[in-house]
Every structure is written in C-alpha cells, then in structure tokens.
C-alpha cells in the first residue's frame, strides 16, 4: 500500500484578517496571506497599497486592531517588538537603519545579540558585502546609499534568523548595486532563513521571488507563485498597472 503524501509544512508566518488603524486612518482592511518556509515571498503592490504598514504591523511597530499574526506556530499579534525580534524575526526598514556616528564594526556588534560576532559568520557576510570589510573602522555616515543598505541587511543577518523581513532594499540604488543585492538574496535563499521582501524593482522581484502576494488598497488581492505572475503580462497590468517586461 502506497504511503500517503506528507502534509505540507506549516508556513513560517501567516496573517489572518489583519486590520490596522493609524490614528483616524484605516490602512489595512483584513490582510490575509502566508509566507512559506524557505525561499523568498514577494509582497508587491502600487504605492500606498499598504505594504510597509503590513511589515510594521507584523513587527508590532503599529498594532493590529483586528486579526491574527502567527509566527513559527505562535501567536505574536500582541507581543512587543523586542519579543518578536527575539523570537527570530529580523526587520530591515526602507530608511536604512544604521547608526551614522558609529563605525561599521560598532553597528554590526550592536546587531549581534551577545555583542560578540561569530568569526565564520562575519567572513560569510564579508564575502557577500566586501565593501563592509574595507570600511570596517569607518563611521557608517561616510558610506554611500548603497553601502548603507548593505550594512542594514548585514546587520539583520549577522545572527541566524528564522525570518528576514526587508522593505525595498534596492530603492534608489544604482543598477550595479541592485545586481549585487540580487546575488545576495539568491545566496540567502540557500540558507535556512525564510524571507518576506517588499520591492518596487520588478527585475529584482522576478529574479529572487518564489511566492508572491499582491496588495491593493490595504487588501491582498492575489497570491501565487512569482514565476506565474512574471509570465502573465495581463495579470501584471491588472494587479500592478504595469508590465514586468518593461523593467528588465
């Protein structure tokens, strides 16, 4: 008798009916989607669709007014932000969260939970971001925009994490730096970390994305594979108002 197929693994993160109000404004209107374990899940949508609010709500920087957020089997909807980070989620906001007056080395040590950086892991980070080794003893404020973004991502991965949440890592970056980011995220996909990535550069989205959720007006209006979305120009036009082919 043939064995029954194994049940699919539970998602690393799921949102169910999440609503968020910011002051008098109702921003998220029942957001529901799941982030599978492993690989990269893209969260796409037009400007103002609610993507950043969704990420900030996951981290409880803005509290959900309704709904449920489950991470690695545990309800984190009402947990404080430090406890969520301690559970294994690293968050990289779009504003390049680095301490400009501190050196690159000091920025990295602050991101390490014990203050001490594992040498092997640091070598791995340097291999992905060689500029950080060059500027190791320089103040982070002297770095270019692309180098600051590299430092932001490096800070998030200097410790092993279960989930990496990144908001627009290529925003404002030169094409060569974007290509470097694509290489980095492809390498990160080979590790144990799952990734939730908001990105406006559709070449980046197509290059690294596995699953996708598309938002519009504070709601998730489409979920599926990134490959299927990348191969359907009419769906891209309907959901995003543009064609990925124009962003190669």
UniProtKB/TrEMBL annotation:
Keyword Cell membrane: yes
GO biological process: L-amino acid transport
Family label: Belongs to the ABC transporter superfamily.
Keyword Cell inner membrane: yes
CDD domains in the cross-refs: ABC_TM1139_LivF_branched
Family matches, as Pfam families: ABC_tran
Naturally occurring in which organism (per UniProt): Cupriavidus basilensis
Entry protein name: Branched-chain amino acid transport ATP-binding protein LivF
Domain ABC transporter: 13-242
MF annotations from Gene Ontology: ATP binding; ATP hydrolysis activity; branched-chain amino acid transmembrane transporter activity
InterPro entries per the UniProt record, alphabetical: AAA+_ATPase, ABC_transporter-like_ATP-bd, ABC_transporter-like_CS, BCAA_Transport_ATP-bd_LivF, P-loop_NTPase
PANTHER family: ABC TRANSPORTER ATP-BINDING PROTEIN (PTHR43820:SF2), HIGH-AFFINITY BRANCHED-CHAIN AMINO ACID TRANSPORT ATP-BINDING PROTEIN LIVF (PTHR43820)
């Amino acid at each position: 008798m043939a064995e029954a197929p194994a049940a699919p693994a539970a998602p690393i993160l799921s949102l169910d009916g999440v609503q968020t109000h910011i002051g008098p404004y109702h921003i998220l209107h029942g957001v529901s989607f799941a982030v599978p374990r492993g690989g990269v899940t893209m969260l796409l949508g037009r400007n103002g669709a609610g993507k950043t609010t969704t990420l900030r709500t996951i981290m409880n920087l803005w509290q959900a007014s309704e709904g449920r957020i489950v991470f690695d089997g545990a309800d984190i909807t009402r947990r404080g932000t430090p406890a969520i980070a301690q559970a294994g989620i690293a968050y990289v906001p779009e504003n390049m969260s680095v301490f400009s007056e501190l050196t690159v080395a000091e920025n990295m040590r602050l991101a390490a939970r014990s203050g001490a950086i594992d040498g092997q892991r640091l070598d791995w980070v340097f291999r992905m971001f060689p500029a950080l080794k060059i500027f190791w003893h320089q103040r982070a404020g002297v770095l270019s925009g692309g180098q600051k973004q590299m430092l932001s991502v490096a800070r998030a991965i200097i410790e092993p994490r279960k989930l990496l949440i990144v908001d627009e890592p290529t925003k404002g970056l030169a094409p060569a730096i974007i290509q470097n980011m694509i290489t980095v995220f492809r390498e990160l996909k080979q590790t144990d970390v799952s990734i939730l990535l908001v990105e406006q550069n559709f070449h980046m989205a197509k290059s690294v994305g596995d699953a996708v959720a598309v938002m519009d007006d504070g709601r998730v209006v489409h979920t599926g594979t990134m490959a299927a979305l990348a191969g359907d120009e009419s769906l891209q036009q309907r959901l995003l108002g543009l064609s990925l082919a124009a962003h190669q």
